[in-house]
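Subject: Interface between my chains keeps coming out wrong

I've been trying for a while to get a sensible model of this assembly. When I model each chain on its own everything looks fine, but I need the whole thing in one frame so I can look at the contacts. Pasting all components below, labels as-is. Any help appreciated, I'm running out of ideas.
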Amino acid sequence: MAPKMSDHYKQKRRKDILEAAEKIFIEKGYEHTTIKDIYEEVGLSRGGVYQYFSNKRDLFESLIGDKLEDIYQLTADALEDGEDPWTLLKKRMFGEEQHPSEYNDSLAPVVLEFFVSGRTDESLSVYARDRYHLGVSMYENIIQQGESQGIFTPRFSPGTIARAIISFSDGIAVDSALAGEEVQSKEQSELLFDMIQYMLGIR
Amino acid sequence: MAPKMSDHYKQKRRKDILEAAEKIFIEKGYEHTTIKDIYEEVGLSRGGVYQYFSNKRDLFESLIGDKLEDIYQLTADALEDGEDPWTLLKKRMFGEEQHPSEYNDSLAPVVLEFFVSGRTDESLSVYARDRYHLGVSMYENIIQQGESQGIFTPRFSPGTIARAIISFSDGIAVDSALAGEEVQSKEQSELLFDMIQYMLGIR
DNA sequence: TTTAAAAACGACATCAGTGTCATTTTTATT
DNA sequence: AATAAAAATGACACTGATGTCGTTTTTAAA
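Reply #2:
Try treating it as a single job with all components included. I did that and got this:
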């Protein structure tokens, strides 16, 4: 006499909503996306979405949530396992192919929009700082590891280089969002690549 | 029998509104600023503001308008007058003191927010591209001038280096908006400074 | 001082989006 | 099949912001 819905079912629905939401967020940006846009995209009703998420912010945070923590953990593990810091750094900066390519992380500008437009909200800005900090640490750890192995001879402190990588990448993401092709993200990634080699004293 | 208000008066009022608006925009960000916030800050009524601007976007575009064109023109003139490209480049990147300092252009993140959150609006994105293009040209011209004078020996095309300066600066602006001190903008500006010397082949 | 034009006011109608909740539908278990 | 719990629906009340417009106030010229 008890119809416990399978966890699997709930998870699937949740994922459906998040996928639809991601599509819409990329299309319309964070601020201009409404709950209506989302439930129409999933093919659910208003209440249907509210069953799973309590508002747009909750939905968005779920969407981007954990992603960063995952990659941080993955990086820590890789370092632990003795993966080459230079290879690892390239992977984190440019993806598995370890090489600059056309810019494609279309959610990145939305994430930045989310944090920038919400920067006056105290709780959000705490969250933003945490995320930023985690990103810095990730790169910093890789660089420190490489330094201690004698692979890198950094011209600036690992923290500063880590922050520079993040700023530069964020800048490319933002500019791509607003000027598209014009930004020549591939060429810029190549420049970033060259700059990092210089900053880390790699031949 | 005709009370033509002095242009001076109108200009002053307009400027008052823009100044108040700038303050509020910096405080609350673009999206979260309302017309009400603004007329309360100036000490005017709702209708009062609408007398001068037709909506928030119009107001914001007036605020940032021309600024970029002005600096572009100023740069073109300076090059024409034979100003040293390296000095000029440093001025444009770091202000008159020509040296990296704490990040302080508090309107910059608001400008980025404006363009990023409005990036789906066709007319706005045209405007954004124009602005971006103008910025690229400005830096590109300086670099080309320096190259032809034999002061710079660029490792990448002037256009790519120009775009990199913009991306990096935008990145610092965005990150500062959302993580504040944490971003260590001064250190990053120093790194940017060093990187540019390297990219331009300056001893 | 009168006067007519411009500036400033603020109430108002309108709109878009939000989150809720009583009701209906679907589901898994008995 | 019967049933009870969970999921899904969509109408609803509410909110906050927008731009307008008839009215009042201020202004500078006559």
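Reply #3:
Confirming on my end. The radius of gyration of chain A is 20 Å.
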